[in-house]
Please model this.
Amino acid sequence: MTARFALLAGSLLGALGVGLGAFGAHALKPMLVATGRFDTFETAVRYQFYHALALLAIGLLINQLPVIEKGLGWAGWAFLIGVIIFSGSLYTICFAGIKAFGAVAPIGGTSLIIGWLILAYQVTKA
Model:
């Protein structure tokens, strides 16, 4: 993952998070509350935002610490894949009602944890 791609992915995830969060808080709230999925939706948006910011940090760190660019890139990929799987599975539960995707969310969560661990390891190497 390049610095430019990390910054682009973080920016797009952030923009999408604002849009989904606003849509969920207003237009979708009655449906989400009625189905008992409002908290699930908020969790998906919150984790998406956290990791949008993490991707922005990765992009900036790659520019500041080029000696560990490859490792930081791996952390960025883990964050991006984790958001897609974790938040994506929660959005699927909310919108499609397919509860089986609850079993997929931990895979995304594991990817997010791996991203943070890779980041921590790479920073110690810098």
